[in-house]
Amino acid sequence: MTPAARLAAAAAIIDSISQGRQPADAVLKAWSQQNRYAGSGDRRAIAERVYQVLRARGRLSAFMGGRQDGRALIVGALSLLDGATLEEIEGLYNGEGYGPRPLSKHERGRIMAHEDAADLAEVALPDFVTADLKAVHGDRWRDEVEALSGRAPVDLRVNGLRATIEEVEAELRGAGLSPQRTELSGWGLRLDAEPAPNVQPLDGFQNGHFEIQDEASQVVGWLSGAFPGATVVDYCAGGGGKTLGLVQAMQGQGALIACDVSAKRLDNVKPRLARAGVEADLRLLGTNGGGVEDLNGQADVVFVDAPCSGSGAWRRRPEDSWRLTAEEVARLHALQLRILGQATKLVRPGGRLAYVTCSVLGAENEATAAAFEAAHADFKPVPIADAAHSADLTEAGRERLTALAQGNRLRLSPAATGTDGFFIALYERAA
Ligand SMILES: C[S@@+](CC[C@H](N)C(=O)[O-])C[C@H]1O[C@@H](n2cnc3c(N)ncnc32)[C@H](O)[C@@H]1O
């Protein structure tokens, strides 16, 4: 494919991502299957262009005078992000072959405007998101916006029940990769996202020596208070990402009950448990919390990884950032409170409750924690500093997390910790 034909293909793919609800990855994969003439270099270049545009969509749309179509966004990217000159862009947009038609007067005018991407931070994300980040971070909101628009590395969690970190490092190096130890999690290894490391075929993955899991997602498990021999309920277990980390914190000893309202998601936990060589009691919950009555007042730790916007993972799924609405966030906030209320019943007197999201929004984090605290005087905030002694954290991690915490609440984010955005609030049920 010519460079111009790649741009035309990327524009069409961006349009189908905009018009549907499918993840960008799935749309790109479908396009590759339907366009077999595209070679691996074409597919890589097209995917890179699509992700570059998705990450900067708000800015590019503003730069192009509010247009949101794939063609305009790519013209904007060439000018604003790549720094291409008008002549260079006209060379690509000349209507020849499978390339895009020539530039319009309006498009030429936008290119001549010579704006700076950094000046467009205000419009990088939906307005209600920017307002939320400003309310939480004050002057530092720009850092959060910039970091959220970046690329995420690939983090692995070594399964200490099956392997040592040195063994996994050696296997990864043998496969030509360059793992770096993570700063906060004592079991984390970080790989560059580019070129995308393909770790799933490795023996270590197949044999459960490691899982793919963002460092912040590991850290919230280490802070949960799960200990060997405990009864731990993973209340919103989903596909089981945190479940496996919780079993590891329990050193495989005790009872782990993984619940979810989605049978399909719970099914996905089974092969992961088998690979990691651990067991959990999987329970399908009713939306009113039914199905775990036998555990009322029994759990040492209830871990609520609540449904949320997923905004903490926008580096990985940038298309979600402009699909989110303020109404959806309000719905999620109400759901988070309802689920927390249900989960409280399972905590034994003196036991722990951990509220977790992978969101960066105050509306789903501090606001939900504050509303929960106002309604549940019997749940006392536990300072993060008291939980940060976990041996699964690095020494630097213990210090850093203690310093970052605000009482019983902690935020991790691409800007603050170089991780996905996560939030945790810890409570203890009055004895
Ligand atoms: C953030 S995801 C959990 C991700 C999972 N813990 C992981 O690490 O892979 C939230 C989960 O909450 C579940 N959920 C939604 N409503 C729920 C409810 N009323 N009670 C319990 N879980 C619920 C969803 O099915 C979803 O799997």
Brief digest:
The protein contains 19 helices and twelve strands. With 431 residues, it is of the alpha/beta class.
Describe the structure.
The chain is of the alpha/beta class and 431 residues long. It has 3 domains: 3-124, no CATH class; 154-212, Alpha-Beta Plaits (2-Layer Sandwich), CATH 3.30.70.1170; 216-429, 3-Layer(aba) Sandwich (Rossmann fold). It has 19 helices and 12 strands. Strands 5, 6, 7, 8, 9, 10, 11 and 12 form an 8-stranded mixed β-sheet that branches. Helix 13 (241-249) links the parallel strand 5 (230-234) and strand 6 (254-260). The termini are far apart. The model has no long low-confidence stretch (mean pLDDT 96). Bound molecules: S-adenosylmethionine. Residues 235-242, 260-262, 265, 285, 287, 305, 307-308, 339 line the site of S-adenosylmethionine.
Detail the topology: elements first, then pairings.
Layout (H helix, E strand, L loop, with lengths): L2 H17 L4 H11 L5 H16 L1 H7 L6 H12 L4 H7 L12 H8 L14 H11 L3 H8 L5 E5 L6 H10 L5 E2 L6 E4 L11 H4 L3 E3 L2 H9 L6 E5 L6 H9 L4 E7 L2 H14 L4 E4 L14 E7 L20 H19 L2 E11 L8 H10 L3 E3 L2 H4 L7 H10 L4 E4 L1 H4 L4 E8 L2
Parallel strand pairs: 5-6, 5-8, 6-7, 8-9
Antiparallel strand pairs: 1-3, 1-4, 2-3, 9-12, 10-12, 11-12
Helix pairs in contact: 1-2, 1-3, 1-5, 4-5, 8-9, 12-13, 15-16
The structure holds S-adenosylmethionine.
S-adenosylmethionine (SAM) binds next to helix 13.
